[in-house]
Specification:
- Helices cover 35% and strands 19% of the residues.
- With 529 residues, it is of the alpha/beta class.
- It folds into two domains: 327 residues, TIM Barrel (Alpha-Beta Barrel), CATH 3.20.20.140; 100 residues, no CATH class.
- The strands form five sheets. Strands 1, 2, 3, 4, 5, 20, 21, 22 and 23 form a nine-stranded mixed β-sheet that branches. Strands 10-11-12-13-14-18 form a six-stranded parallel β-sheet, sandwiched between helices.
- Strand 21 and strand 22 form a beta hairpin.
- The protein is globular, with a radius of gyration of 24 Å.
- The structure holds zinc ion.
- The site of zinc ion has 4 residues, from loops.
Length: 529
């Protein structure tokens, strides 16, 4: 009797669906403006999601079991893909809340040469925990070099080079999407171009890409860009000049030249792109102001030992003064803002200038250098460097092969003193730079954070709103979307993002994170089970 009744109900349902031409699915975005991610102008319509995919796009769709999400006056875009993310805190913050709140649904970790050396174990662990966003990874050259050569400031022996190549191959088999370098940092700074080419070739042969924190982003920027282009050519590998910028007053305006180099490389058939965060300040360790030779062998102990020698100390200080005046320091202690500073937490958010005054010192570059040495001797600090020009930010943003990437660290709300990019990157590009300033169109802004990075990673089923694609989506108000985080008050979520969907599930709605996490681990082109 029961089966018979069920059969009748089923038959009735099928007839009903057929006769009403109603669809089935899980969610229906009704009456939305659709930015498909390709850069084309927006269209209007309805979108049905079933399982983890986009099932149907059209006009006046109806869906009998779907949960309807009213999209009136709202816009739908593919989920934002962050090609430069510091994902180390994920095991502690698996929700990836800071990323989700700004519409990011996929992030690429392992930038700047730093990644877990055993990527397979790490990714398996993340998979077990379950992440709020989709996670992809690069294998980092600094990590590989440290594993094989510690912090030695010399060229590798043939055996050491072979060991590093093997680690690149292993990383690719573990699921990396390519290799990253951080040639400004230890020990990458000790590596010559030929070493990077040799290792990048291994990644290239396995379908990987190369992303680089250039050797210099200040005075040596042009040479740094040229080096990356040489690597693109000689290793035959797609390249990203990551967090592209021209830092330090003497270099302002030089993005004209760096972008011309990118264009000429592309015209010569090389696959070179850049990414960028939309701010006029960078964030990194205070040690970036210290000449690399002074940190060889160790950032703390070896450095402290050198500082005991008055002659060495003088030349370290001279190097820092030079960097304060001409490079990341921006020529002014008011441009160097202390961020995480365990030794003197009351100075977090304050400037090197304030610290000098507190110590009763004149705020000169020399005294600033003295404080930088003190900070490093007390286990360092991180700092925000306000030394990038707005014109360069806008010029880079307008380049057709510039993507948006945060360079942000996954952050728990109200913890620490981060760069505002951790909460604001994507909404800032759409709201501030595209809508309010008109630097690029909104459709183009969205292309730079969806289909362009997806194509760079070779992700064929994400980054575009199209039937059959994975349903990573952001529903936002075009009028309201804006970043709120500032350098003074970084812990402010953006406004205007209504819904974030990850793999067909609602991860964020009305400012509330879902209890469940829907991200998956994405494995690169050479992944072997
Ligand atoms: Zn970097």
């Amino acid at each position: 009797m029961k089966t018979k009744l069920a059969f009748i109900i089923l038959l009735f349902s099928i007839t009903y669906v057929y006769s009403c031409r109603e669809d089935t699915g899980d969610y229906l975005f009704k009456d939305v403006k659709i930015y498909d991610g390709t850069g084309s102008s927006a269209t209007h319509g309805d979108v049905i999601i079933e399982g983890d995919r986009i099932k149907k796009i059209g006009d006046d769709l109806s869906c009998m079991v779907c949960e309807t999400i009213d999209g009136k006056d709202l816009s739908l875009a593919p989920g934002f893909i962050d090609l430069h993310a510091h994902l180390e805190p994920l095991p502690l913050i698996p929700s990836a809340e800071s990323a989700l709140f700004m519409g990011c649904t996929t992030a690429l970790g392992g930038p700047d040469g730093g990644s877990p050396i055993n990527l397979r174990n790490y990714l398996d662990t993340l998979n077990q925990i379950g992440m709020g966003i989709n996670v992809a990874y690069l294998i980092g050259h600094n990590s590989i070099r440290t594993e094989v050569m510690h912090l030695d400031g010399r060229a590798p022996t043939p055996e050491e080079l072979e060991s590093m190549k093997e680690l690149v191959r292993q990383g690719m088999k573990d699921g990396a999407f390519g290799i990253s370098t951080g040639l400004k940092y230890l020990p990458g700074t000790f590596a010559k171009t030929d070493e990077i080419i040799a290792l990048s070739k291994e990644a290239s042969l396995m379908g990987g890409i190369y992303t680089s924190h250039l050797r210099e982003e200040g005075l040596g920027l042009i040479e740094g860009v040229e080096e990356a282009i040489t690597i693109a050519r000689d290793a035959d590998i797609p390249v990203v000049l990551t967090h592209h910028k021209a830092i330090g007053l003497p270099m302002w305006g030089r993005s004209v030249q760096t972008l011309a180099l990118v264009d000429s490389a592309r015209n010569a058939g090389l696959d070179v792109m850049v990414d960028q965060y939309p701010y006029t300040a960078s964030f990194t360790g205070i040690s970036v102001l210290i000449p690399a030779w002074a940190l060889e062998g160790g950032r703390y102990e070896a450095f402290a030992k050198r500082c005991e020698d008055p002659k060495l100390r003088d030349s370290i200080k001279a190097g820092i003064v030079y960097n304060i005046l001409n490079d990341r320091g921006g020529g002014d202690l008011k441009r160097i803002q202390l961020a995480k500073f365990n030794w003197k937490p009351h100075l977090e958010g304050k400037y090197l200038y304030d610290w000098a005054l507190e110590e009763g010192m004149e705020p000169t570059a020399e005294n600033g250098a003295e404080l930088v040495i003190q900070a490093q001797l007390h286990r360092g600090a991180s700092a925000i460097y306000h030394a990038i020009s707005e014109e360069d930010v806008m010029r880079i943003m307008a380049h057709p092969f510039a993507m948006v990437a945060s360079d942000g660290r996954i952050t728990a709300f109200e913890k620490g003193f981060p760069h505002p990019r951790v909460h604001g990157t994507f909404p800032r590009v759409i709201g501030h730079y595209a809508r309010d300033k008109g630097v690029i169109s909104i459709a183009e802004a969205i292309r730079k954070m969806t289909s362009l990075p997806a194509s760079r990673l070779g992700l064929r089923d994400r980054g575009v709103i199209k039937v059959g694609q994975k349903a990573d989506l952001v529903l936002f108000s075009e009028d309201k979307i804006i970043d709120k985080a500032t350098f003074e008050q970084p812990h402010q979520y953006p406004e205007g993002i209504e819904v974030v969907m990850v793999n067909g599930q609602i991860a964020l709605q009305n400012g509330q994170l879902s209890a469940e996490r829907y991200g998956i681990i994405l494995r690169g082109p050479a992944f072997e089970r």
